Amino acid sequence: MASAAGSSGDGTIASNPRVWIVAGIAVAGVIVMAEAARRRRRWLRDKSAAPPDSGAFCNLFELTPPPQPPPPAARHLLAGLTFAVSDNFEIEGYVAGFGNPDWKRTHEAAKRTAVAVTMLQKQGATCVGRTVMDELGFGVTGENLHCGTPINSASPSLIPGGSCSGSAVAVSAQLVDFALGTDTVGDVRIPASFCGLLCFRPSYGVVSTLGTITNSQSLDTIGWFARDPRVLHRVGDILLPAAVGGVKQTRQIVFADDCFEFLKISNQKTVNAIKNAIQTLPGYQPPKHINIGQYICSNIPSLKEFCEPATKLQEGVSALKALSTVMMLLQRYEFKANHEDWVNTVKPKLGLDISTRVLRAVNFTHDNIKSLYAVRNELRAALKNLLKDTGVLVIPTTAGYPLKKNSKERLSSGFEDRMYAFVGIAALSGCCEATVPLANHSDHHISLSFVAAHGSDKFLLRTILDTYSLIKEQVVLASKLVTTSMTNGNADVDASESLKEKGNSAFKGKEWSKAIELYSQAISLNDTNATYYCNRAAAYLELGRFKQAEADCDRALLLDRKFG
């Protein structure tokens, strides 16, 4: 049968041209698919390679300053310095993209340049381009669906933070001397923290935002990044009015102890480093300590409607969370008023997390908008009362740490809560805030923020200029002490346990003050043991020192939930 079929030619591959055609197409398809896969791998490899500008820029150009006038005229204050601006700053003849190609497509080129850019240019600085930002000024990661994610040169595997990621990266990668961005809900401070940079968020309203695209007019401020505190200060000299926060003879640092309890790092590298640094400086009063959450809870009556039910011990944490809630609601309300029509008409293509935020904004409703503004006004008054003209509140910049790029956790509400935990203090009150990088912890930077009363901008910048190098020295010293402690094995742990046992003996003997002293010594050697705080709280209660007991209980809860 087989040979007969073969000799007749019917039904065989050899004699059926259709089969050959199909086979040829299949082989060609395999070849095409293989070539497509090869090209895709090459495209992905090229795309993953670090671009020469670290992916920071979306527009490159050069706005040169006017010529330096001949002597005896003073040299321009920013002569020789270069800077960049976020993609929401208008530059004459260019279209600002606001981080989104649909925005750029539907808007015209600017007829004039942003006021802040012109002021800096007139003083000798050269603007070299516009930088990538989260779409429409939303977002906290610094990732952009259309432009990619600028590479965090301080920690390349981690997100740079947003929304002004490109400006932060341009400074961190030493592509420019400083850069501008707009800070609405931490958009400059968060990327500064993630990229290990200095930044300054001025008091609300003291630096003109004319020529920037508005996200939320009650929260928007122009901020700037720098690597050098002297550059940070010089930019402030240009942008800040002369009357804002003059020289003051005395200063007092106020530590928000409850905020530091969120950090997974020893106080040796944070609070103690600052204390040791200012000891050598004239005019600094002894530092104060405060539970800022409790202070806000007690002094902002309009905040109560936004607070979640909480025990007395957790009221401060609830107040801080409510503050960030009010900040986000105010942003949504004003963004909707500004851009709802454009969003509904254009229906822009947005990244997933940005799309979620924008939808929340355009669908926002609230029964009592006035209460949002009431919180804002009460908070500014309360902080003015706390800090007066010479106080500086010190807080961690964020309560969390940067994620790996493309991490799914970026979409979680928990990550957002940690990012916004403390930024609302300055954002809502309109106070000025400087962010200072302190140390590396594991694979990321730790930054602290210094907050001064509204209008005390130059006073705060001067404080940073005077203390920065001393603080960095103390952080290095603390790191060496920690390393020495680790090489000494468990000596500190053994010593702290011995002190705890002595404290327990004093407690049993009703020597409350002695017990507190011994527990405090144990904490100074090992500040991550919840039992020490719990035992000291018990001794404080015996002496009727309820605030101290409450603070220790809060710390014990943060370290170990079994004490709840």
UniProtKB/TrEMBL annotation:
It comes from the Eukaryota. TPR repeats lie at residues 496-529. The chain crosses the membrane at residues 20-37. Residues 75-230 form the Amidase domain. Keywords: Membrane, TPR repeat, Transmembrane, Transmembrane helix. Pfam families: Amidase, TPR_11. PANTHER family: AMIDASE 1 (PTHR46310), OUTER ENVELOPE PROTEIN 64, MITOCHONDRIAL (PTHR46310:SF4). This is Amidase domain-containing protein.
